[in-house]
């Protein structure tokens, strides 16, 4: 998913016309410390990342795409456990009229996200808050959102190799909340008719269903994601709404969409995913 080019103002990259607004920075990219990289993420938007820390993933990209696709008129967006800002900034590129609140507990990730928000010209509509999203004091009593996004960690502590960097550990393992916490906070912060979009492993579907029910939510649709043609899906994308916002007949059913395939069996980018990439301003 990574792409670099040397000219911030370049109009094309490998034959692809870069859409969307230009970054707020000047003609010359800022000096980048050797421990960091500045990588293309949506159109001219870029993201600061640690070279040896957590790097944005296809899961993050798909969460932003899925949520913003189903709520294209969102005026207010909340990104829970926002990390270095990959999900929120892609959604901000796709929803240029929306205001964002993001919550992240790791100070290093918050620092990088703020650098990226400044670089991309988002600071006027992008509020980055540092802390554990489970802390109710981080959001005002009346703060509600048309769209909530989340890319939760997938695994309880002790269930796998935790990695060699604190960023990686907290992105993969449930140190500060699990899918149930994400669903609970997200559903409680939705506006009338609002939607919570997230990603989670296909093999843990039952955990997402339990989390939705406990939060008073309904998974109205989900889409399995196949990373290579012919293989089983590894993750699903979920769209969740408040049960009270839905007619009775919709509160116990989920529309399962056809799988989204990332690569063909020959290893090439699948035609549909190439079109999806274009929709969030990334070269096919």
- Rg calc: 18 Å
Number of helices: 7
How do the SSEs run, as a string of H and E? Answer: EEEEHEHEHEEHHEHEEEEH
Q: Main beta sheet: strand number and arrangement?
A: 9 strands, mixed
List low-confidence stretches. 1-8
- According to CATH, what is the topology? Rossmann fold
- Measured between the Cα atoms of the first and last residue, the distance is 10 Å
CATH A-level architecture: 3-Layer(aba) Sandwich
Shape category: globular
Helix content: 25-40%
What's the β-strand tally? Answer: 13
Give the DSSP E fraction (strand runs of 2 or more residues).
Answer: 25-35%
Entry keywords:
single chain, alpha/beta, 9-stranded mixed beta sheet, 13 strands, 25% helix, disordered N terminus
